[in-house]
Each structure stands twice: as structure tokens, then as C-alpha cells.
Amino acid sequence: MSKKHKKEEFEQEQAAEKVNATETAESNAQSETEGQTQKQKAEEPQTDRVGELTQQLEEMKDKYLRLTAEFDNYRKRTLKEKADLLRYASEEVLKDLLPVIDDLDRALKAIETANDIGSVKEGISLIVNKFNDFLKAKGVKEIEAVGQELDTDLHEAITKIPVQDDAQKGKIVDVIQKGYLLHDKVMRYSKVVVGE
Known about the structure:
alpha+beta, Nucleotide Exchange Factor Grpe, Chain A, domain 2, 3-stranded antiparallel β-sheet, 3-stranded mixed β-sheet, 3 helices, 6 strands, rod-shaped
């Protein structure tokens, strides 16, 4: 090959390399520009997303604070209602008991001037019956004891006494203090004497 030919070939190779280098540089520049554009596009939604999430967080904080305050108010209100309920729970019972107390006051005044003991006994008997009806209406009933077997769920044995009848052994022969049930719950145990 001649020098001229080699020189032309060399120039062509260099020109091709320059073209390739230019194309590569343009391609890289275009890729870089596209990358920056995509990065800017990616940053914009990310910035919007951060703002959106920040707003949601603020809304959740506000809801949480409101809910906490509402629950605190509810708790205070229910505690007050419970305290009032305990404080005034017996009001209805006592209100229903007032007529019996009025009758007792009238009976005491009548005893002072009464000449007939029979009418005083009758009046007191009526008051006792009225009071027993009041207790029944409230669910209070007397625990049956005399003649029953000793039941430690209802009775409290105070003492034992000897009995002549074998049928009376182990049974209640006397009641020292009456016991009462409120519905099915023992309010006061019967204090009893058991035969042995």
C-alpha cells in the first residue's frame, strides 16, 4: 500500500472515530438531559407526595387530639355519674320508707293519750305489716330458720342446746336474730340455736 493510501485510510479512521466520539458525546448528553428531566419529573411527584403525607399526618394528629379529649371528657362524665349513683342509690328506697316512719310518729303520739291498749297493739301491728310489705316489694325476705336443718350458707350457729326429742337434733330450735335475703343474696345471716 502506498503512503497516500495509508494516509487516507488513517484520516478516514480518525474521522470515523471523531464521528463516533461526537455521536457518543451527543448520546451521553442526550441521556444526561433525559436523566435530569426524569429526575426532575420524579422529584416533583415525590415533593407532592411528601406534602400530601405531611397534610395527612397533621389531620391524623388533629383527629387523635380530638378523640383523646373526647374520651377524657367521657371518662370524667361517667366517673361523676357513678359517684352520683353511689351517693343517691338509696334515695328511692328511703323515699318509699317515709310513710312507714310517718305512721310510727303517729303511733307514738297516740300511745301517749291512748286508754285502750288493744287499739295501740292493733295500730302497731298494722305498721309492722306495712313495713313487711315494703320489704317484700324491695325484694327482701326473711330467712326461714326454726325447724330447719342448719345451713351455713344461710344460718350462723351461736350455740347448741340439748333437746329431748331426737327429731330436733341437728335442727334449729330458736332464732336469736332474724336473717334476710335480698333477692338471692344473703344480707344478714340468721343467728340461731341448734339442738343436740
